[in-house]
Amino acid sequence: MNKPLAGVVLSLLLTGVAAAPAVASHQGADRPDAATPASAPAVAAPAAAGPATDSASAAAVTYAGTVALSNCSGSVVRAPGSQPNDPALVLSNGHCLETGFPAAGEVIVNRSSSRTFSLLNAAGSKVATLRANKIAYGTMTDTDVSLYQLTTTYAQIQSQYGISALTLNDVRPAQGSAIKVVSGYWKRTYSCNVDGFAYRLKEGAWTWKDSVRYTSSCNTIGGTSGSPVIDTTTGKVVAVNNTGNESGGRCTDNNPCEVDQSGNVTVRRGINYGQQTYTLVPCIGPGSQIDLNRPGCAVPKP
């Protein structure tokens, strides 16, 4: 997993791969990316110094709405049907939770939390500290995701800071589509395309389904775990960045492998991955409440 920058020096070691769950190569929260944002490896490229702007036909992708966690990245997100006065949600990885990596098969729902998040504006400057009151949902089973519910509404964030939440797309991303991985922790943007999908992505004790595989230019590093993966045509979130194969290992922590429907294993050294988020949309009910019994909600349940 693109490790969580939990520790300091460790995060540099997480280069390129998502910080491992407990060990997995998840690029975000499982370990302290030891280095400070200023010392991020130059290889992690397209580091956007300011808002990333695409061609006229594409949506402008900036840092507005992204957040920095203590060890990972994230973003303020809304479902297509969310209302202005609903409590805002923050999206990140399950392996970025302050409670540690969830075990395989573990699902967390509505657990109290007071975690804080640094909210960024379009240029990547911190404009506010947001606070959660609970972990609305978190797991590393089938996917690697966490949703925090905030004490602040979408309308309050908009009126006080002029920042709108990013919208979760409710459809599966398409192969070949242009994407950007936007890290609030490093204030760095990676540009690439959806190369394809892994039927199963296995890393140590964890297995994820239908993971998004990036083309090689999204060479994400530790601390980028939890970053929103944004479709540059629609400007909507299609996945959450979480891991990559760091050293060519086979299905080990920090070295996820792809497993096809026949059980064949493929290792892609240096390639990174994200977990699709359209599956979350049916589970978000009125008032930003996570209801795993809503029609169409198929994410893992406790």
Structure summary, number of beta strands: 16
Question: Mean pLDDT, as a whole number?
Answer: 87
Sheet/helix structural class: mainly beta
Low-pLDDT runs of 5+ residues are 7-25, 29-56
Question: Biggest β-sheet: count, sense, barrel?
Answer: 6 strands, antiparallel, barrel
Rg, nearest Å: 17 Å
Strand order of the largest sheet: 1-2-3-7-6-5
Number of domains: 1
End-to-end separation in angstroms reads 23 Å
Which outline best applies?
A: globular
- Strand proportion: 25-35%
How would you spell out the order of helices and strands? HEEEEEEEHEEEEEEEEE
**What's the helix count?**
2
Explain this structure.
The protein has 302 residues and is mainly β. The protein has one domain (1-284). Helices cover 4% and strands 34% of the residues. It contains 2 helices and 16 strands. The radius of gyration is 17 Å and the shape is globular. The two termini are 23 Å apart. Mean pLDDT is 87; it is low at 7-25 and 29-56.
